[in-house]
Design brief:
With 159 residues, the chain is mainly alpha-helical. Helix content is 75%, strand content 0%. It has two domains: 80 residues, no CATH class; 51 residues.
């Protein structure tokens, strides 16, 4: 049997599966929402795994359940997707608007005065808590010393 050329091997074994996968990947990528992250390599790996002509029963498997992908992700876990890849345009718009409205509100003079007052009030409340805690600790130490004195007096009386 003569040795087969690389070109004929590619045309016979690889291209019949790879080319439809590339076409489908391009179609899916072009219809995916702009803000969503589309990982073409992930898509192609899953497509080729599912459409391997030598293996059956892989239609329902997802990328994360492919054995060699699972093994690789155990060794090298993927970082979580950034919010820009997971939020819809409406959700992103709301977050940006809320941040901007909060910024504009915090810039107002009356709000700044109120925040300064709150900061001072928190310091006062914290000071009161510290004084109360230290007073309780002092009272407990005083009570403990009285208790130990009484115990010593009772021991001396018993002797």
């Amino acid at each position: 049997m003569a040795e087969e050329s690389a070109t004929s091997y590619l045309e016979r074994e690889i291209f019949p599966v790879l080319l439809p996968g590339l076409e489908e990947m391009l179609h899916v990528a072009s219809t995916t929402e702009k803000r969503k992250r589309f990982n073409s390599l992930d898509y192609l790996v899953e497509y080729l795994y599912k459409h391997n002509p030598r293996k059956d029963g892989r239609d329902e498997i997802t990328l994360a359940k492919i054995p060699f992908v699972e093994e690789e992700w155990k060794k090298n876990p993927r970082p979580p997707l950034p919010p820009s890849a997971t939020l819809s345009e409406d959700e992103a718009r709301l977050i940006i608007q809320a941040a901007y409205r909060g910024y504009r509100t915090r810039c107002r003079e009356d709000v700044q005065l109120f925040r300064e007052w709150q900061k001072g009030r928190r310091k006062e409340i914290n000071a009161v808590k510290v004084i109360q805690r230290e007073w309780r600790r002092h009272r407990e130490e005083k009570d403990d010393s009285k208790t130990s004195e009484m115990n010593m007096n009772q021991e001396n009386e018993n002797v």
